[in-house]
Write a structure and sequence with these properties.
Oligomer: single chain
Strand order of the largest sheet: 7-6-5-8-9
CATH class of the largest domain: Alpha Beta
Low-confidence stretches: none
Largest sheet: 5 strands, parallel
Distance between the termini: 12 Å
Number of helices: 11
Structural class: alpha/beta
Order of helices and strands: HEHEHEHEHEHEEHEHHEHH
Bound molecules: phosphoric acid mono(formamide)ester
CATH superfamily of the largest domain: Aspartate/ornithine carbamoyltransferase
Length: about 300
Amino acid sequence: MKALSTRHLLGIKDLTENDIQLIFETADNFKEVINRPIKKVPSLRDITVANLFFESSTRTRVSFELAERRLSADIVNFTASSSSVSKGETLLDTVNNILAMKVDMVVMRHPAPGACAFLSRHIPANIINAGDGTHEHPTQALLDAYSIRERLGDVAGKKIAIIGDILHSRVALSNVFCLQKLGAHVRVCGPPTLIPKHYAALGVEVSHNVRQTLEWCDVANVLRIQLERQDIRYFPSLREYHQYFGITRQMLDALQRDIVVMHPGPINRGVELTSDVADSRQSIILQQVENGVAIRMAVLYLLAAERT
Ligand code: CP
């Protein structure tokens, strides 16, 4: 059986192109499974997975839990707000106490960049990063690239624009690493205050002109304005942001050809894009969510291979 080159999924940066292709091929098989009347397989029977969410989540949390259930894993769910973290317990103490109950794999979302890498150095379980602060969100990038491959046949050679709040986005960084490893051309676009200087050094194009970027790209992956992470004002108002960087139906209709529109969610409707774009036939936003289950099944299955 083919195996991943790593025993954790901490970030796309650590994966090889072969790893990504293996995850996609495995997800193809699981996508077929989850469309059957009986959606469950016994692949992770006797494996216990802890889902540790120290930050809010809808898509990622539900999708990991569904993936684990469809693989027949035993599941422990933990949310920081209802735990002893609120009494001052450290991350390592919290996780070691959970591991003492014989947990094999940990899926963790945490506000601190590097929190998953820290855990991987201290505990024996396989760690899957479900989003660490503004650093990486590897399974989101995998499902995004998988959805592009599904819609356009391949990722290599495609022009992909990532538009919006790049500064506060873990999805942007993981997408850049993933798309580049798969041979896509990547451009980031947004206000100068929301694009960190180091992105140019990653080998991506940088633009502040959304109309030109839409003319250039095959796919626009539109990101949320993350007001909850913004400690200062990066633009005058949401209304002005929408006026200069929001994607509207009129902008898409003015293009010479149909582009694909993506968004990792949650969407701020009327800010980064309008509802008639989000819900249009060019949008693959709900296909991204659907593909998230197959991608997460593939990641769990491949990382658990050493234990089964
Ligand atoms: N895309 C994403 O990570 O969404 P959630 O925050 O709802 O998990």
